[in-house]
Every structure is written in C-alpha cells, then in structure tokens.
Design goal:
Layout (H helix, E strand, L loop, with lengths): L16 H14 L3 H10 L35
Helix pairs in contact: 1-2
C-alpha cells in the first residue's frame, strides 16, 4: 500500500488562468484609479495582462511570404 500522492513543488494556493483573469478583473473594477489598480495587482502577484481573455489579447504577428522564395545561390535574371 502506498501513501498519499504528493505533487513535487505543487503550490496549493496557485491560481489557474481563469482564476487569475477573474481576480484581475475584480481588482480593476473596484480600484479607485490606475495607480490603485496597479498597486493592488502587484500586491496580489497579478499582472494587468492576467485580466485579458484570449480574444482580448493582441494578435500575434506572423509575417506572410509574398511570392516565391528565391535561392540566394543563383543570380537574378533581368
């Protein structure tokens, strides 16, 4: 028989992504001003970005290749 399973370095008070999002939004909605909001988020170990949903997050820019790629080993035709 084995003992209870223990997770290595598991923080019992760690918040998942949704909990962090909700906490940041509550802080932002109840803060008196931006400085107060920043202070409270910092005290709670949260970041302003924690309040964003994936839809709110800025888009990741991925460059698009236009046209065909040319080899640098061959000279260009004129």
């Amino acid at each position: 028989m084995t003992g209870p399973r223990e997770l290595p370095n598991a923080d019992p008070f760690a918040l998942n992504r949704e909990q962090r999002r909700q906490a940041a939004r509550v802080v932002a909605s109840t803060a008196h001003d931006a400085d107060d909001c920043g202070f409270l988020l910092d005290v709670l170990g949260l970041a302003p970005a924690d309040g964003l949903t994936p839809a709110d997050a800025p888009p990741v820019h991925t460059p698009k290749l236009l046209g065909r790629r040319r080899s640098t080993a061959q000279p260009r035709r004129r």
